[in-house]
Write a structure and sequence with these properties.
The protein is built from 2 helices and no strands. The protein is mostly helical. The N and C termini lie far apart (50 Å).
Length: 104
């Protein structure tokens, strides 16, 4: 009986010590997503600049490659933004299903 009480107390203590780390990891994930979104937007701005430059110089093959690269970046950016929005919503509204109706 004494062993069970000690193991239970040790388990509860472990959970209490780990809980702040789990919160820190979720904030770290949110911040890394925010940084990735910013980098993605910067990359799209640069690709847009290169696309305009290629079109101005008449290099349509390079412009098509830039357009394809922009489309890939936009798709990755949309996925990262959806992940970020989901993380933020679950962080602030963890127990509340207020936004559940928006997800189809």
């Amino acid at each position: 009986m004494k062993r069970i009480a000690i193991r239970t107390a040790a388990g509860l203590l472990g959970v209490l010590l780990i809980a702040p780390c789990a919160s820190a990891q979720s904030w770290g994930h949110i911040e890394s997503d925010r940084a990735a979104v910013a980098v993605g937007r910067k990359g799209i701005r640069h690709d847009r600049y290169e696309l305009r430059r290629d079109l101005r110089h008449g290099d349509y093959r390079a412009a098509a490659r830039e357009q394809a690269e922009m489309n890939r970046r936009r798709a990755r950016l949309r996925a990262r933004e959806e992940d970020l929005n989901g993380d933020v919503a679950s962080r602030y509204y963890r127990d509340n299903d207020y936004y559940a109706w928006r997800r189809y």
